[in-house]
Amino acid sequence: MANRIRARKSFRVFRLQSWEAFLKLVTSPPYSNWAFRGERDERWPLYSSLSRYLMNFGVAPRAWPEQEGRILRIFKRKAHQFLQQPPDVDDDFQWMALMQHHGAPTRLIDFTWSPYVAAFFALERSLADGVVWAMNPARIDSSRAPRPTRMDPRDKGNVRRYFLPGKHRFIWMGEPYAMNRRLIAQSGTFAVPGVLNAPIEEILSGSDPENVLAKIVLTKPVREVGMRELYRMNITYATLFPDLDGLAKSMGYELEFHWAYNPRTMERYHT
Questions:
Q1: What is the mean pLDDT of the segment spanning 139-146?
Q2: Is-contact 145 170, C-beta < 8 A?
Q3: Within 13 Å and on the Cβ side, how many CA atoms surround 235?
Q4: Which terminus of the chain faces fewer neighbouring Cβ atoms within 10 Å, N or C?
């Protein structure tokens, strides 16, 4: 089946049938300089884990700013027991990155500068069509928000001033000044939405969407070859999460792979 391109919701959607088509797309302009995010189900909108939690469990929207600020305060008060060198108490973005790293719901949305890392997260546990979202950091439009050049969440007070109130529909993208091991291993960066009640694709819908956002659907036929090639590139849970948990999680794909034969068909490779 031929690879198809179609327009939908104002941004470009690519539906790819092969790993080779994916490589050609992400290594060519304009996408060769974009940031990427992989999801194992192409139907999922681009919400943060915090947005999903608040909506799924019925927290009243009026309470969202206070509740987000509350979990940030609680984490700061208690996490020092487990940290040899806690972040600066006023560096809210660094604290949120630490929370994200350890599984707390935050407004940070993980992206990566590597399309291959994104493809791994799209394919590794996918039973249907996965997706790699591509976003152009150079064209993210925050001009509708007040003083966009001053809205960097790394600056003292900006998280509480511009993000927690949830009044400005914009996206900021970047990394904390100090990056943890997983963020480094994954070539990671964050998209930080100014509102929690809309997915990224909706927030960016009015800002030249074709040059800001693209949705790359990896259909089921892509997975077998894609995962094999990512394994050969040493992109696994063990390398992306450089700890014992990552190593243990990487054992899943080892069940599907063998150097001598295909575990699905029992066909031996020619030597």
A1: 56
A2: yes
A3: 19
A4: C
